[in-house]
Amino acid sequence: MDAAPLLALLLAAVSLSAAAAGDGAHPGYSDEGTCTVDAAGAGVGSGPELRRLEERRPGRIIDITHAYVPDLLAFAPGAVTGPLVHLKESMANGSEYNLSELRLECHMGTHVDAPGHMNQGHFAAGLDVDTLDLDVLNGPALLVDVPRDTNITAEAMEFLNIPRGVRRVLFRTLNTDRKLMWRKGGDMSYVGFTEDGAQWLVDNTDIKLVGIDSLSVAAFEHLISAHVVFFKTPDIIPVEGLKLDNIETGIYMLHCLPLRLVGAEGAPTRCILIK
Ligand SMILES: *[C@@H]1O[C@H](CO)[C@@H](O)[C@H](O)[C@H]1NC(C)=O
Ligand SMILES: *[C@@H]1O[C@H](CO)[C@@H](O)[C@H](O)[C@H]1NC(C)=O
Ligand SMILES: *[C@@H]1O[C@H](CO)[C@@H](O)[C@H](O)[C@H]1NC(C)=O
To which protein family does this belong (predicted)? Predict the structure, then answer.
């Protein structure tokens, strides 16, 4: 089905006034522990002030990717993540260069799942993150607010009333209000899809990209079952761990570009919205 006319309709229906967020660095990030370059450090002098922008030209390009910091939220309670970026060679220790290495579980931070994540047949068939369809990962997307008193159940999906033809939806939930992605891991009361919510999406919508503001698209009590529903056919892409704070609901151009990790069932991805 051609999504264009439907999206035009939605455009008319949804308020698209400028996004609400300010223009500075996100207040959720402290400067401590990030792999930042010290502007006052050796050789840099009084260079330009470093700013980690969450929006470029406020409201126009919105970064919905969480920064990879050493205390990045990990899924399992008590899981230790950092340091993610580690200096292997360091000028401070006499090397002629600085050289960092990256250590990262593939399902940390903002990331995509490949169908092989919870479907052995797809994994065996080689459906890794490198086979995900960039056409699904890039295009018009709808940001919706899920009612805050519920997981994403069949009832909640029905209530959201997302029209046929919409292929990419970012579901903002209570997780954003609770700032769960800004905390250390272990809170399994996050909101996600229940099995019947996932089934309702598969049966009644054309959604192929399912974005969510928690590390898992599935509520903890439905962790396996909801994923299994999504991965029954390999054409639905969950994009997890999105940063959806302070953005107006509505339609944006979404761009997600996962790393081409051959053989992996998950990969970090940079995702941005463009108005
Ligand atoms: C190189 O790494 C050191 C830490 O060993 C740091 O102080 C310095 O700013 C880095 N230099 C550059 C050019 O990144
Ligand atoms: C430099 O070497 C010291 C001593 O071996 C070590 O404790 C420190 O972590 C090193 N720093 C970096 C940036 O590699
Ligand atoms: C969502 O489900 C989780 C269990 O997976 C539960 O702890 C939580 O309270 C539910 N949230 C809401 C808003 O119903």
Answer: Belongs to the Cyclase 1 superfamily.
Q: Which of 216, 221, 224, 225 to mutate to test the pocket of ligand 3 (most atoms within 8 A of CB)?
A: 221
> Considering its fold, how many domains does the chain have in total?
1
- CB atoms < 10 A from the CB of 104, how many? 18
**Tens-digit pLDDT profile for residues 25-62:** 444 444 433 333 333 333 334 455 677 778 877 778 99
Q: How far apart are CA 177 and CA 179, in angstroms?
A: 5
Nearest to 25 by CA among 44, 50, 48, 47: 50
Residue 53 DSSP symbol? B
* 132 within 8 A of 177, measured Cβ to Cβ: no
Which ligand 1 atom is at minimum distance from the Cα of 38? 9
Q: Which residue among 38, 98, 99 has the greatest number of ligand 1 atoms within 8 angstroms of its CB, and so is best to mutate? A: 98
- Report whether residue 100 contacts ligand 2, using a CB cutoff of 6 Å: no
257: left (phi over 0), alpha (psi -120 to 50) or beta: beta
Q: For residue 60, give the CATH number of its domain.
A: 3.50.30.50
Phi then psi dihedrals of residue 205, to 5 deg? -135, 170
Domain extent, residue 21, equals 1-275
Whole-model pTM: value is 0.82
Cα separation, 229 vs 226, in Å, equals 5
Residues shown for the chain: 275
